[in-house]
Amino acid sequence: MSEKATLEINGQKYDFPIVNGSENEKAINISSLRAVTGGITTLDPGFKNTGSCQSAITFLDGEKGILRYRGYSIEELAEKADFLEVAFLLIFGDLPTEEQLLKFHKDIKDNSIVDDDIRKILDAFPKSAHPMGVLSSLTSALTAFNPTSVNIDSEEDMYNSVVKILGKLPVLVAWTMRKKQGLPLDYGDNSLGYVENVLKMMFKQPNQDYVQNPILVNALNKLLILHADHEQNCSTSTVRIVGSSHAGLFASISSGISALWGPLHGGANQAVLEMLEAIKEDGGDTKKYMAKAKDKSDPFRLMGFGHRVYKNFDPRAKIIKVAADEVLNDLGVEDPILDIAKSLEKEALADPYFVQRKLYPNVDFYSGIIYRAMGIPVDMFTVMFALGRLPGWIGQWQEMRLRKEPIGRPRQIYNGQTSRSFKA
Ligand code: SDX
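A: This is the predicted complex of the input protein with s-citryldethia Coenzyme A.
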């Protein structure tokens, strides 16, 4: 054994190999632990110290604030790439040639029709339903209309499932929003680019042509790229573990949407806007909310702050903050919420509570300000996060499948009642 870790338990020593990643990360491979120690396992609530897999898709360094997709920096991709290029990169491992991109986009467009019967499922939801619950349900329903999506050993069926979900999810996103607005549903326009088509499906009014605004196209393209993957976060880990049971791609993506919904995860972008609105209603009293965030007896947290991995600035937050200024200026929108966000950030970055805990703005802190300026309803913000994260979920699910990862089944330490008999 080359590099190793030695564990000593009750005088007995056990050696375990050290795994080295391509960015010099190190992990102790404990896959033999239970067998060699006669049943001892590890305990790590929230998996803060536990790697679930090795992956070649996304690298992030939380201390240095680095994020790369397949080796390309998020800064370069956000500035120069097209979302569909990044989707191809995440899923297939390299940036596409022009020919590959054209075929990929054609296959997606050829598979973007959603079975009309899915409208009946959508109709059954009350208008008050949260869009993430609707989207997760409709995504899972896709399996019923595309049964080959569960043939995980067929590369042809799996490629078709990939282009189907990339083609159909934008339709489901637009339907979910427009259903609540009482607007007609349509299937988009295959003559458009991927992002342009999303905007047209979401915003076209029935009584007028839809005119593309390049500011919105560029902003959405950048936001979708910035959300596209983030290694083994909560929702991606969910997609992988559901897929590890050999459930189909759509069922796995549906579970990822449900995990992303939570306000500690993707739901934070909606919670940030609601928090900023509350502060605005409260006369802009940011100090009151900072105090609430630090008060352990108060469940309130400063939404959009802190991160499991980033103990420095989330590089995506830096890019989105600049983009928020640009988009609002370009659109001529004055939004006091942005000013409140900036003063909240400034106060938090100078406050010992946040500094000591290395709590910085994360991807969700500024994104909602752009979505709002684009006219996206606040309860659709996390849906937009899901649309961006889709290629990352697909790429991670494919990697899990192609590497034939074992079914995910963690152990536990039981601390309940010991054996007792049933007395009638
Ligand atoms: C995303 O994992 C990913 O990659 C996720 C994501 C992705 O792209 O997939 O980056 C997207 O989910 C971003 C995070 C969005 N969530 C929020 O903005 C919600 C607010 N943030 C927190 O709830 C929290 O920071 C988490 C959930 C993001 C991270 O929590 P951890 O790593 O479990 O940290 P913790 O809860 O153990 O907190 C450590 C300390 C605690 O205080 P002490 O017990 O040490 O006194 O920091 C405090 C916490 O109370 N703390 C906060 C806080 N976040 C952590 N206090 C006030 N406000 C906050 N936002």
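The beta strands are 4-9, 12-20, 26-28, 58-61, 66-69, 72-73. Residues 46, 230, 233, 264-266, 268, 293, 301-309, 357, 359, 362-364 surround s-citryldethia Coenzyme A (CB under 6 Å).
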